[in-house]
Write a structure and sequence with these properties.
This protein is an alpha/beta fold and 150 residues long. Helices cover 31% and strands 14% of the residues. The chain is globular.
Length: 150
């Protein structure tokens, strides 16, 4: 969270809501990461799909109490349906959501909310965000609703 806008946004939201924020120096050290979650039960998890996959492969992670978890947020890459199902089998159904954004958009522009999650969709624009879908070939022609684009 100290070198990219996505992590900084999670940090700023924790500060805004007076939440405890776990800054894990090496998230690939899954045993340490899970140990910290055991000490401080998470209410929100934010990670990339690869990290969620590593966590779901850890038996201690699978044994944690996620009854207080409100949401598990994923971003930075698509998350395969089977992997989402694995995560939900651990943390609970209906808690997973995905975000889409980039540094240039400061950072999140859409949310695929847990309450209305649709696989392979980027979700709905966040308040104050204008979004348009254009033809991927020319980058300017607006696409009709329901058609793929960029």
């Amino acid at each position: 969270p100290l070198f990219h806008i996505g992590g900084a946004a999670v940090l700023f939201n924790a500060l805004r809501t007076a939440s405890t924020f776990l800054l894990i120096p090496d998230p690939r050290d899954i045993d340490h990461f899970v140990g910290e979650m055991h000490k401080r039960t998470p209410t929100v998890l934010a990670a990339v799909p690869a990290l969620y996959q590593m966590l779901c492969a850890n038996d201690t992670f699978k044994s944690l109490d996620f009854s207080g978890l409100r949401m598990a947020i994923s971003g930075a890459a698509p998350f395969a349906k089977e992997e989402v199902q694995k995560l939900e089998s651990v943390v609970g159904a209906g808690k997973f959501c995905e975000v889409y954004g980039m540094t240039e958009t400061s950072p999140v522009i859409t949310l695929n909310p847990a309450s209305h999650f649709k696989e392979a969709h980027v979700g709905i624009p966040l308040p104050g965000t204008d979004v348009r879908i254009v033809d991927a070939e020319d980058g300017t022609r607006p696409m009709p609703q329901g058609e793929a684009g960029e």
